[in-house]
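Input chain follows. Return structure tokens only.
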Amino acid sequence: MRAPLLRIVAAPLIVGVVLCSSSAISSADPVAVSQARERVVQLQRDAAAAAERVNGAKVDLARSQDRMRLFQGQVDRSRAELAEAQDALEQIAHELYVNGGQPSAVLNFSLDNPDSFLSDLDRLSETGAHQSTLVDKARATMLAMKVTQQALAQERDHFQQVSVNLGVAEADVSKKLAAARGELASAEKAEQERIAAELRAAQERARLEAEAILAQRRAEEQARIAAEQARIAAEQAAVAKATAERQAAADREAAAQAAEQAAQRLAAERATAARQAEADRLAAEGGAPTSATTPAVPAAGPVPTGRAAMVDKAISFALGKVGGTYVWGGEGPDVFDCSGLTMVAWRQAGVTIPHYSGSQYAATKAVSLSAIQPGDLLFFYSVNTHVGMYLGNGKFVHAANSMDGIRIDSLPGYYTANPVAASRPGV
């Protein structure tokens, strides 16, 4: 039999790790947070090792159950064989008693008492009964069953010990995991509070700056709309005047045509009367047709539109993402990299450009840095390195990096570098 599981499983589970007092991390000290995380990692390793030993104990428990089932099956088969031989042995003992050949009443061959059963077989053998094969077979079967019963009893004891040790091991794992989770929660809470405070401050700054730029854009757009409306009103007034003049000319022409047609009808009537008189005289017939036409009046053409609405859509989208997260390869809806932000922003204006700064430069119209306008793309270091969108007044919006996210910066530019090129989408 194997050594009790107490030696092979339970003892290793008592891991010699002194759990430091889980003092609350009240400050947002990055060093304290880092040290707490290191302790959490060690606790998690200890818990993982203990969990594997629990798994081993469960495997051993299952094997012990299999061995108990095997031993019980062997005992049941031996007991069935002895039950078949029991009647024959009792009959032999009875015949010996009847024939005066010694005991019978004291030989009961009890299957529940292996030692008594074997003793009864020995006494039966001493009488010289001629059933040695049956007796020997019964003795061998009972001896085998006795050994198997002893093994079964030992395995049951082992099973009970394994069960107890497994409960202790699982409790130890739960304790270590709870300690790890508690310390990790404290560390993460302190770190999250620090990050949240910094993020709130950055978001507030970005919000105020974005609101200022949007307010300026709205004022510029309102001025542009007012100018456009004044231009359209002037054009409409000119069109109305030209239309009235054309209508007056048409009316005059129609009146002249009506007078001419009336004169033609009068002349025709007189000619008809003369021909009728001549016909009457000559007994002949005659007539003359009349006709009239009406001129058509032309209609006015459509009013053209500008580019400012496209630029406003692209800029408004980009400003709406300020304070968002930078993720390499991101193209929305909430995370972007530099070329992903400019691509999706201009897509709102109906302009399609690739998701790569070099390809964006190649696919748009290059413009001089001295002539940049709101909505233009600015390229830093090289056209293949970094791209942002110009807002006007020396500011631009861009997805900077994984630490700074989407933000508004002032020229000279990205990490104090001046832009090296500019281009204009949608033209």
